[in-house]
Amino acid sequence: MVKRTLVMVVLDGWGIGTRDSSNPIYVAETKYLDYIKRHYLAGTLQASGIAVGLPWGEEGNSEVGHLTIGAGKVLYQHYPRISLQIRDGTFFKNKVLLDAINHSQVKGSNLHLVGLLTEGNVHASLEHLQALIRLAAEEGVSKDKLFLHLFTDGRDSAPQSAIGLLQKLGDVRVASISGRFYGMDRERVDRVKASYDVIMGKTRPSKFTSPIGALEDFYKRSYTDEYIEPTLLDQSGTIKDVDSVILFNFREERMRILAGLLNEGRQGDLYICSFTNYTEKIKFPVAFPPDKVTHPLGKVLADNNLTQLRVAETEKYAHVTFFFNGLQETP
């Protein structure tokens, strides 16, 4: 059998756009590429948005492009993956989430939802929080057993939008609020500890019992959502030893300190799970583990004894290795 050489050329940043003077690729003379398209099989693929696993309407990028080519399938990022499961109903059958609910029901304890109140869809999603509230109701969790501990946004959402978002949640009990400046800091343990102490009931309750009342007071004093001071609204809604906790942020890095504090302070039979794997150091049950690429293109070629040579400038080293191999250094 004659072995033939196959060349795959990636023109990074080359796209198909409008056919007018605003598009330099259209204006340029690309005779060779035009010849190929005229005389050989050619097609067009969508390389942005949900077609390559990105949130709806988001521009594509080089990392996602190489990852998708190497994987041979769509690898959905956290936000669209969870959102699609809500829409097709599989979210409401998620074993990890159901285990958290079942734990609280067996123990006769409370269920706590902890995360960012936002429509920014960068770290968390209002749609995901609403789905959790719906899931709890469908599984028979009474309203007096469900408590929310919310971080107000102000960065990926409008500066004072938390009240409007709270109103979209309906009749729920919010036990504490904190600006993301405190609850989601990446480096300052002391800031996150202030939110943690409120969630765990280690501080005095506020004079406010309503999150809207507390926020209105902060707004009068020119606070924006990001900097709302950690505030305990309901002492009965703090986390106890036999409760269940669901951490619903899907982006990892700003939840690592809080997850670590919860893990270190865990006593009794407290059940804690998270939407995604915040850190390998903490082994919480994960509701939405990453979709692993078991047979990237490079591995398929190697397993069939086919030689492959990957050539790129230094800046694209990671793209033709790590991303092309399905987030692995070697295939």
Can you describe this structure?
By secondary structure, the protein is α/β, with parallel strands linked by helices. The protein is built from 13 helices and 6 strands. It has helices spanning 24-27, 31-39, 62-71, 78-88, 95-107, 126-138, 162-167, 180-183, 189-199, 211-220, 256-264, 297-303, 317-323; strands at 111-117, 146-152, 173-179, 231-232, 244-247, 271-274. The model has no long low-confidence stretch (mean pLDDT 95). Pathway: Carbohydrate degradation; glycolysis; pyruvate from D-glyceraldehyde 3-phosphate: step 3/5. One of its GO terms (cellular component) is cytoplasm. Keywords: Glycolysis, Isomerase, Manganese, Metal-binding.
